[in-house]
Amino acid sequence: MKFEVTILGSASATPVYNRNPTAQLLNCNERHYLIDCGEGTQQQLIKYGFKASKIDYIFISHLHGDHFFGVVGLLSSLHLNGRTKPLQLFGPAALKEIIDLQFLHSDTHLRYEIDFHPIDASKSELIFKNNDVSVETIVLNHRIPCTGFKFTEKKRLRKLVVEKLEQDAVPITYYPMLKRSLNIDLPDGRHIEYLDYTTDSAVPKVYCYCSDTMYDESYFDQIRNADTLYHEATFLHEMLDRANETHHTTAQQAAEIATKVGAKKLLIGHFSSRYKTLEALLDEAKCGFENTQLALEGKTFEI
Ligand SMILES: [Zn+2]
Ligand SMILES: [Zn+2]
Predict the structure, then answer these.
(1) Which of 66, 168, 185, 216 does the annotation list as catalytic?
(2) How close is the Cα of 119 to the center of ligand 1, in Å?
(3) pTM of the complete model beyond 0.85
(4) Residue 176 sits in which domain range?
């Protein structure tokens, strides 16, 4: 099953040096989940060959413009392109007001429904699940209420050992029960243990998205052992005072967090416009956590 994330924006605050404000597209089993939607996200989707019409779920972390200024434009384009399928939108309650006001004054009546789910940023909760993935919020520490998102793949059914099943002439009609870890008593009197005819499926993978936040151990438990941790790293550590003041994280801190929570891979992003090139940020993070990569526009990472 595909479980990967493509970076559409890596900049904080303003678009600069060909870096776009934050947006990521998560592909889980060919379903598309948009995480944040900074200005220019539509163009980024086109640039990297994705169809906006395939997005059915949008998750917005907070109401700083670099994370949501692209939402109204995207929703409007979907309408103009004839979408009728409902779209699920998760974000701060006030996002609904903002969207409604914009469409009210432009006399726009969407031809599809927005199923809006307000997020309570004061506590972590399960906000979504389907057959592929579940999504929990991560309470972050930012200047305004802000949540990250933890995407956990759904555990797959057990795998059949077909050769053995055929050899012992177990009827195919019983295969679904075995996959669901059920033992069977066959009409001919034989007892079939599922453990003898199936193997465990892969351990579900976890993707944690943490932007924007300052270093705060209160959310560490929730992101523990993530297969891939995306963490903002707005500044170099020499700017720690500025990071604390603006409730952001330094590259060194992002690496420290990845180490402390036992992440397997770290992606850093949300880079300040003060950095024309990003090598120093990557080097600093790699010093503390070797398996770090820059979450750059157009790059796709397997979770
Ligand atoms: Zn931001
Ligand atoms: Zn912010």
Answers:
(1) 66
(2) 18
(3) yes
(4) 159-199
Whose atoms come closest to the Cα of 66: which ligand?
Answer: 1
67 assigned to a ligand binding site: yes
Dist. CA 133 → ligand 1 center (Å): 25
Residue 66 in marked binding region: yes
Domain end call among 148, 178, 199: 199
Distance CA 279, CA 194 (A): 52
pLDDT in tens, 113-152: 999 999 999 999 999 999 999 999 999 999 999 999 999 9
Query: Do 43 and 107 belong together in one domain?
Result: yes
Residue 15: predicted pLDDT: 81
Q: Is 200 annotated as a binding residue?
A: no
Same domain, 194 and 270: no
Tell me, yes or no, whether 164 and 258 share the same domain.
no
Domain count, the chain: 2
Q: Is 117 annotated as a binding residue?
A: no
Ligand 1 mean position to 282 CA, how many Å?
Answer: 19
Ligand 2 mean position, distance from CA 118 (Å):
18
**Ligand in closest contact with the CA of 140:** 2
Residues 195 and 208 in one domain: no
Is residue 72 located within the same domain as residue 119?
yes
66 is catalytic: yes
